[in-house]
TrEMBL record:
<dbReference type="Pfam" id="PF07687">
    <property type="entry name" value="M20_dimer"/>
</dbReference>
<dbReference type="InterPro" id="IPR011650">
    <property type="entry name" value="Peptidase_M20_dimer"/>
</dbReference>
<dbReference type="InterPro" id="IPR017439">
    <property type="entry name" value="Amidohydrolase"/>
</dbReference>
<dbReference type="InterPro" id="IPR002933">
    <property type="entry name" value="Peptidase_M20"/>
</dbReference>
<feature type="domain" description="Peptidase M20 dimerisation">
    <location>
        <begin position="170"/>
        <end position="257"/>
    </location>
</feature>
<protein>
    <submittedName>
        <fullName>Amidohydrolase</fullName>
    </submittedName>
</protein>
<dbReference type="Pfam" id="PF01546">
    <property type="entry name" value="Peptidase_M20"/>
</dbReference>
<dbReference type="InterPro" id="IPR036264">
    <property type="entry name" value="Bact_exopeptidase_dim_dom"/>
</dbReference>
Amino acid sequence: MDVKERIAEWFAHFHVHPEVSWKEVKTTAKLAEILAEMGVRHHTFDDVTGVVAEIGEGDRIIAVRADIDALWQEVGGVYKANHSCGHDANMAMVLGALTYLQQEELGSKIRFIFQPAEEKGNGANSMIERGAIDGVSHLFGVHLRPQEEIPFGKVAPAIHHGAALFLEGKIKGEDAHGARPQQGNNALDPLFAIAQFIKTIHFSPYEAYSAKLTKVQAGGDSLNIIPGTASFAIDTRAQSNEVLNELKERVSEGIEAIGKLHHVEIEMVWSDYTPAAEVSEEAASLAAEAIVETLGEEAFAPAIITSGSDDFHFYTIHNPELKAAMIGIGADLGPGLHHPDMTFNREALDMGARVLASALQKASLLNE
């Protein structure tokens, strides 16, 4: 069986055996089994899912990360784990790159980080805490891209993800009878005020950012009760970490003011922060060279800028000296990432694996 066929086989397995964040137990076991069959040194962890493997020798370490978790979503009317973000493809491409590299000359160690819980936004931190990027100079990632970004056959040397942060809030007032609203503290009025307020936050038009309500819950079955409590959630995003931090402050200050104005208590919990990309020009340049040499100049696409987020960028937040880039693979992916019926051109898998292997080899052969 050639490498392309093995990549397709690995993808097929992971595709039909999805597991959600932090519960990738069988996925971890399968990865360890594949690595053992390939004769690759690797280790798992007692307290979290995921696998770290290495090939090559030397003091320098080049690394690549593949995310291994699936989403939990409704598919055909049934809620289940589903690889609609393409992490099954990412695992297959990284395993394919490893296979190609076993046949090549390497100038350093190459580490393969199969990371859990990207969809929760904190899986990268679990690998950082366990030393996965200790001693690493260059880090690469790979991800399929939706068709509106780049078509099949095109590959981008870097993805500039935006930063994301989520707010969960609860308004605590007091219920009142519909005939006597003065006796309570209405939760709906401050909720509507919050919805209007977040639309009034403005930064420079040259900055990409957004804040929007994504969940609202209030009231019960009785139509003559004015609810005193309500819960809500806000999704905030920005293309830079600096703008996201300022957006967070503005949203917090505004909601606090709305609470005082309406005489209600509003609890706020910010969570699931994912930083914006800090792309290394050197790593992106190596990826660009790999694309052209592997697939030809016609396959090269400019770096992608997207408001989507990925916890891959926690690695560079933790180590600002780390030279990192995530390679974007055009695959005619549609209707879109996270769509329950997402599909793509499977021919992209081998293309991605070969480009990734070339980029990793080039980084390993650098004289530093």
